[in-house]
Amino acid sequence: MHLKRWITALAALPFLIFSVCKGGVFFTTLVSIVCLLALAEYFRIVFNPKGRTVSGLLILLAFITGLCMIWAAAHPNACALILGLIALNLMLSAFFSLTQYSSDPFILENTAKQIQGTVYIPVLLSFLVLIRNGADGTAWLFLVLVVVFAGDTGAFYAGRRLGRHKLCPAVSPGKTIEGSVGGLAANAFFGVIVKGFFLPELSYSGVILCCLCMGAAGQAGDLFESELKRASGVKDSGKILPGHGGILDRIDALLFAAPVAYFFKEYVL
Fold this sequence. Notes:
The chain is mainly α. Helices cover 78% and strands 3% of the residues. The chain has helices at 2-22, 24-46, 56-72, 78-100, 107-133, 137-162, 177-198, 204-232, 247-268, and strands at 166-168, 172-176.
């Protein structure tokens, strides 16, 4: 399993670096593909329990809205467009639920899950496009990716070697407080390294604070996805990445860390 994790990560790394460096259409297309795959895995998770069915129209609307959100993030008026798409998806989903309410007792619950999914994945992924298209976007995006992936790896190995006290046993019995601390230490350590090479104008104290906040948010994102899977009785979101599971398993921490990074980039640092 460890070997598969490293082989998968190393195989994907050159393509990821190329897309980040190129930016523009290349990076937005990559984020769009990730968005669609992650949405498909999300729907597989949340619509799994009790054999309940959901209309394909709701899912199709989420895919279309999600893609529009990712590409809207590349527009100069990104924030207004994304807010408008969130509102449009809500209104169209609500209208559809009204037409199905008399015949489908689960339509309101399924509609809520669809709306949650479009905020959870496309909206949070759009922050990566916003970061990349901003000032020093390439350097900042590398900071986000390195910090999140380093924290994930640090938490994994620190938890296996030192883990004694459960972090959130009701959601993820395997995660420990020691692993969490190890992950935060890796967040700060590798964040400082990236800052030294690519963002020398930033203060060390500010970057460390940013990395710790990203790390904490990332761990919350990891636990949130675990909560979704546990509620549905699903082990992995998918099997597309050997050793890692699904796309959503790989980006769950990144989804929560990206808005934090954007906030620090634009308003703090």
